[in-house]
Design brief:
The protein is an alpha/beta fold. The protein has helices spanning 27-38, 52-67, 77-94, 98-112, 119-147, 161-174, 196-204, 216-224, 283-287, 295-309, 325-335, 354-362, 377-383, 389-401, 419-431, 467-473, 486-502, 511-524, 532-536, and strands spanning 11-16, 42-47, 151-155, 179-183, 210-212, 234-235, 266-268, 271-272, 291-292, 313-316, 340-345, 365-373, 405-412, 438-443, 461-463, 478-480. The chain is globular and about 60 Å long.
Length: 549
Amino acid sequence: MLNLHVSEKEKVLLMLLPFWTPQIPPLGIACLKSYLICHGFDVKTIDANTDANLNSLYNDYLRSLKECIPEEKRGNYYNVAQDVFRNHLNAFLNFTYKKRHLKLLNSVVSKTFFIELPLERLVELDDLVARFFHQLESFILNVLDREKPSVLGLSVFQDNLAASLFAFRITRDVFPEIMTVMGGGIFASDLAPGSPNFDMFLAKTPYIDHIIVGEGEIQFLKLLRNELPHRGKLHTLNDIDGQLLDLDSAPIPDFSDLNLDFYPYLSTYTSRSCPFQCSFCSETVYWGKYRKKAAARVVSELEQLHTAYGGRLFLMGESILNPIVDDLASELSSSGLSLYWDGYLRVDPCVIVERNAAKWRDAGFYRARLGLESGSPHVLDLMGKKISPALMAESLAKLAGAGIKTTTYWVVGHPGETEEDFQQTLDFLEANAENIYEAWSSPFYVYASGQVGSNQWETQRLPLYCDQEVDSLMLQTWYLDCMPARDVVFERVARFQKHCEDLHIPNPFFLYDFHKADERWKMLHETAVPSLAELRGRRSSSSVAGQIV
């Protein structure tokens, strides 16, 4: 393991590798760059997700797999198919013999879509993965040779884990003098510290020198200055005595290195963590204490970002806007800025106050992303949501009536969800279809640790893959030995999607789909916010607008 003081004259390279699916440029590495630059370091950021060749292979893979999935099993296909794709990438990296990882690929598909693939399709998918890694290798080596960094830091999530590990391996083999550092959201889910996945991961990744979990700005700076305790390669908030970043004094994100034409949004953030404790969520476990910026500070950041990069549409990159939404709207209204902002909003009594929705819309609130999760009071109670279907319906009506887009997120198959509970969700969709801009469903996922409800499910948790399979997949997938059964959960996801299609509720993935969703919204609501095309003023150069997870 490399432990060294990095001179401010040496370069720090921060990268985000494919595939990052949200609609914003990589906010994490943009925040790290601005923070480290303020402390004198030379930092370069690179986003490989904008590479056209890599994206083309990704799209080819999803199309090829989709051709083999029966329509009745394609519920929220582009979300569920990510499980197959990322597991295939990991299997390809860790298996020497092709026949063995093709067998494992077929196992992954059968446990995700509950079908078997013909050998010729397995080979076709595997060839696409081989081409992806070949293209990625050229990309990474070209970047490292051009930039000549002393430190390589990668921001890692579920869907770019394999590409990130591949980059770390190449770096260690070709440029062993470079210090390698890993951080990112994956440590809030699949690789939560203390979980079986994490322990196995540590043993299998000697080419990663340091792992940072939580408050990346403070820990990364101390790491570069060699000020962290030498307790191995894992660094957490305990290593900085729980110190939290002062959000009001943090510099604004630096997107200057990135191709912003690829993304429909710019981004900043108003807070970290969450004041609520939903059972399936990892936000509070990962970030700890909730804290927020002053509304005036946020407006100042939006103005600076707009001046620097020209965008008018922003996605706030945090879990919830409720504690600041009203103050933010007031500040923006008085500022005279003509900007639009989008973010996650919790259904609560303030949302159903009619003057609030109108005020927020006038101040540029563009889209409210609502974690509704279920139409069943019983399931909402199991989740600890502390909301009701009646409050959900009234919130949708008030927001949509003001013209604000309403993106809704749903968790299908939470432990204890009955068929009657699920039918209540479908009934809710039908009753409120015209007030829903889009609907995203996800099967319930459980992790060994990191979720609010992890401990309560421990005795019911079972591994999906055998030990030999996990040895190549790098990550175990877990499910619960309870009702509803796993196959029932995925069957319900498919029924959810079909029901939305019948109700003409969109589930957009590609940029064209968002344009169609905007047309529908304008037809339904006279006060609708401008379309994505109107705000961008030009079509994105990318074929993928990005999936919201």
